[in-house]
Write a structure and sequence with these properties.
The chain is mostly helical. The chain has one domain. It is built from 10 helices and no strands. Helix 3 packs antiparallel against helix 9, helix 6 runs antiparallel to helix 7 and helix 7 packs across helix 8.
């Protein structure tokens, strides 16, 4: 599992720029918002957490189609399915490597982008924390879409279409927790705990569903 994690981590960084493309897209989405809404600092501060979360969500969707594509192209996907190690653990490891290469840089970059939106320290910290907790759920959900579309040519758009509606609850509770953090610790906890529960739920369901889809694809 460690060797697979390190291999996928290297491939995620090398393939198409990986983390760099995600960060650049994240930066572009957030940076153009002030030009669209005008120089109203109060408005930017109010909508900032939602914009940062939406930018991170869209950026996370960019590389999901490549989650199993390399194994499909070189024929090693069949070996992963037939090996003694449970396929669920293999998918979980690949999801962890993918999030480390593409999701974690977005979390690290979010405080800087929060400054672009005139967010205060509490909102910036809450946004980074909710992204750290909630963004893995996007990867686990995306693994299912990537497994379904792995056998299809140019399935990148299909993966985004399949995954985006399922990530809406994660977006809702991530933004809600961030806004609640500005009011105080008590309003922050309920949506934040629900966000953690969603991530844990999809950490179990996502790899299992993706493994089932991969087995059906290789049959």
């Amino acid at each position: 599992m460690t060797a697979l994690f390190l291999r996928d981590l290297r491939l995620s960084v090398r393939a198409g720029g990986g983390a760099l493309i995600g960060i650049l897209f994240f930066l572009t989405v957030v940076a153009v918002i002030p030009f669209g809404v005008g120089p109203d600092l109060k408005l930017l501060s109010r909508i900032g957490p939602a914009i940062v979360w939406i930018g991170a969500l869209l950026s996370a969707l960019l590389g999901l189609d490549r989650l199993f594509q390399a194994e499909r192209d070189d024929g090693s996907l069949d070996l992963l399915v037939m090996q003694e190690t449970p396929l669920v653990l293999t998918v979980l490891t690949k999801c962890a490597a993918h999030w480390t290469a593409t999701g974690l840089p977005l979390v690290i970059a979010s405080p800087l982008l929060g400054l672009f939106m005139n967010m205060n320290e509490t909102a910036i910290g809450a946004t980074a924390l909710t992204l750290l907790v909630g963004s893995p759920a996007i990867t686990f959900i995306g693994a299912v879409g990537a497994a379904v579309a792995v056998a299809l040519p140019r399935g990148g758009l299909l993966v985004s279409i399949l995954v985006l509606p399922l990530t809406i609850p994660v977006l809702i509770f991530g933004v809600s927790a961030t806004y609640a953090a500005v009011e105080g610790p008590q309003p922050f906890l309920p949506p934040f705990l629900i966000l953690m529960a969603l991530t844990l739920f999809f950490a179990v369901l996502g790899p299992a569903a993706a493994a089932l889809a991969l087995r059906n694809t290789t049959d």
